[in-house]
Design a protein that fits this description.
- Strand 7 (90-94) and strand 8 (98-103) form a beta hairpin.
- The protein has 276 residues and is an alpha+beta fold.
- The protein contains 4 helices and 14 strands.
- 20% of the residues are buried.
Amino acid sequence: MIRSARCIASFTSTRVACNQHIGGKAILAVAQNLPGRTNAECTTRATLISSREAGQNRHLSTQQLPKRGFAKYAVFGESSVISLSPILPTYKQAGAEGVAVDKKGRMMLEWVPRSNDNKSWAWNDKIRLALSVEEIGLVINQLPHFPVEISRPLYAGQDDDTNSHFSGSGPVIGDMPEKVFKAIPGEGATIILSIDYVKDGIGGQYGEDGKTAPIEITVQVGEFEVMKSILKESIPFLTGFTALMKLSEEREIAQMGTSYNQGRFSGGGPGNMVPF
């Protein structure tokens, strides 16, 4: 049963958008505006979407959206900057029509020290460490009450964190240190986040490309709550769970639309029809 219908028509346009609410769902249809008529008959193919998405689609189209987005959160300290930025998962074909996660995403942590003149940031001296989703879970679980330490071996000609999907193959250079990330609870609910090159328990070693460490920053309680929230909310996206679940949902909706069209135009029984 149709509970309500709202059509937004333009007298100077040849198209009209009709937002019809059917059984708690919303159907957005676009149809040709008939000459001499104030409303168009919404008889074209309809797509089931939420009411919220219907409102957005009246104002934006995929052609108007930017091609890429750069999500990033940064905290600026006195001597360094730390930032979070996601590296999305990659996907692969699964079967004839399916898709599955190839490699899970990561959350890139990046430390940038101040320049020698103390007037700007030494972006070329940045040090990165990419957290896996399991390491993200560890950080969320332990902080702010317990310290966390995560280490990375450096490989010959390759740093696992400059290419987050590198599997870590290749010989380990015996005289190269490990990259070590530490998160230590501080005074007043602050968190000290540091990155260092450590060999035989001694920090301050030279790392890849001759970079020096440690670099650390004290994050205030409010800043850490933002970082913690970002880390937690990122897990379903980095595992690919959100994207694949949405894909499955859209597939089910598309099949529902196909069943409706068969009932509406192919003489199917009432059980296959959605009132329109």
